[in-house]
Amino acid sequence: MNYKEAVQYLKERCGAQPEFAIVLGSGLSSLADLIEDKIVIPYDEIPGFVQSTVKGHKGNLIFGNLSGRRVVCQQGRFHYYEGWTLEEVTFPVRVFAKLGVKYYLATNAAGSLNVKLQPGQIVLLEDHINFIGENPLHGPNKEEFGIRFPSLHEAYDIQLREIVKKSAIANDIPIEEGVYVAVAGPSFETKAECRMFATLGADVVGMSTVPGVIVAIHSGLKVIAMSVVTNMSNIFHSNAHTHEDVQKAAELAKENLEKLISQILIDID
Length: 269
Ligand code: HPA
Known about the structure:
Layout: H1 3-13, E1 20-24, E2 36-42, E3 60-66, E4 69-75, H2 86-89, H3 91-99, E5 103-112, E6 122-130, H4 158-170, E7 175-182, H5 191-200, E8 204-206, H6 210-218, E9 222-232, H7 243-267
Parallel strand pairs: 1-4, 1-5, 5-9, 6-7, 7-8
Antiparallel strand pairs: 2-3, 3-4, 5-8, 6-9
Bound molecules: hypoxanthine (HPA).
C-alpha cells in the first residue's frame, strides 16, 4: 500500500509534527473534544484510508494539542470484521510512524473475563493474546519500517505503564492491569470460548487493538493500551449483551479515561 501519498498529504495539512497517536475506541471518541487548535481531517479525504463502517465509530484524524503535547487522534478505527485486510486496518499506524509519532496510545471497549474487572473499570494492558488468527506483518517484510521478526516480549512499554499507574493514583482513578485477548468478531464469544480465554490467562476480550499494537512495535513506536470494561462476558451471566450496551457503558468511564490520558501526556517526558 502506498503510505507516501498519505504521509505527504497529511504533512501539508497537519501543522507541527505529532508526538503521540491516540486511538479512540468504541464510544470513547469524545476525548477529541479536549484537543485544542484542532485540524480535523475526515478519512475519506486521506489517500489510502479506508472508511469505518461501524455505528458509533466516527472517521476522522484530528491533529492538535492536548495537555500541551502535539497529538494525532484517530477517531474511529478499522476492524478486521468489517472485511478489511489487517494491512488496511493498520495503515494509519504506518502513516503515524512516517509522520514522526513516537508514542502509540490505544484505547478500546472490552468484555471482562475476570470477575474483579467490572463495567466502567479501566484496564491497563500488560500483554495480549492474538486470537484473530492472522498477523498484520504477514507477507514480505516492510524493511523501511522494521525488522522481519520483531520482539513482542514487552510490547506494552514497562516504563510507560509505571507512569500511567502513577498518573491514575494521583488522580484517584481506579486502574488494574490485565491481559487482552483479541478475537476476529463480529459475533460475541460463546460461553465456552470465554471460559477458554480466562483459562489461558486473558482478563479482557475485544475485537481490535492487537493488530495496531503489532504494527506500532514493528515501526519502532512505544505502546500503551487501555481497555474500558463495557460488559461482563457471558461466563458471569446469562443475558446477552449488545453493541448498544457496550456504547452506554463506555460513556460511563469516558470521563476518567479522558482525565487519565490528559495527565499521562503531562507526565511522560
Ligand atoms: N467481546 C468482544 N468484544 C467486545 C466485548 C466483548 O464482550 N465488549 C466490547 N467489545
